[in-house]
Amino acid sequence: MKKKLLDNLWNWVKVIFFAIIIVFFVKGFLLIPISVDGNSMVSTLQEEDQLVVEKISKLRRFDVIVFNLPGNATYIKRIIGIPGDTIRYQNDQLYVNNKKVSEKFLNKNKEKLPAHTNYTPDFDLVDIIGEKKVPAHTYFVLGDNRRISKDSRSFGVVDSKYIFGKAVWIYYPLHDFGAVQ
């Protein structure tokens, strides 16, 4: 009886030990909790939203990413240009590789503007970084709250080595619970 009890106890210790290792692995290497600080991604993300960031997916245009520039705080922005893209804004319209691209995630913010007011000022990638295309291993990012966001228009493209991952899920507060769009 005593041996059976010790065997059961040992089995529970092993299960708990492996569960702890799995949690540390997932939290440290796959999923990272992040808190939103600032209003540059309103209305997509609100200040103090709690997010899960994953590190394994390939990054694509319009993904919301988390990164840290050398000597600066953590940023949360949306990828607008991937390596090799040409980017420009003209009359509040995004052009990627000279094709019009819709940004439906900005609709709520644009609705609040007076008529005939541009939400995103005109620019060309050459004006911002001095190059026609987004360089290899870098991304051009903008905040969804374009009028106040500090983004690639002010600090240039983001090197992939500084990107933590892609914001995938809002888990708190519960009224914002869901996938990051």
Topology:
Layout: H1 2-30, E1 31-35, E2 50-54, E3 64-68, E4 74-81, E5 87-90, E6 93-96, E7 99-101, H2 107-111, E8 123-124, H3 125-129, E9 138-142, H4 152-155, E10 158-159, E11 163-172, E12 178-179
Antiparallel strand pairs: 1-2, 2-11, 3-4, 3-11, 4-9, 5-6, 5-8, 6-7, 9-10, 11-12
Overview of this protein structure:
The chain has helices at 2-30, 107-111, 125-129, 152-155; strands spanning 31-35, 50-54, 64-68, 74-81, 87-90, 93-96, 99-101, 123-124, 138-142, 158-159, 163-172, 178-179. By secondary structure, the protein is α+β, with helices and mostly antiparallel strands. Strands 1, 2, 3, 4, 9, 10, 11 and 12 form an eight-stranded antiparallel β-sheet that branches. Strands 7-6-5-8 form a four-stranded antiparallel β-sheet. The N and C termini lie far apart (56 Å).
Query: In which range does the helix fraction lie?
Result: 10-25%
Q: End-to-end distance, in Å?
A: 56 Å
- Overall tally of structural domains: 1
Give average pLDDT, whole number.
Answer: 88
Would you give the CATH topology?
Umud Fragment, subunit A
In N-to-C order, the SSE pattern is HEEEEEEEHEHEHEEE
Q: Structural class, from secondary structure content?
A: alpha+beta
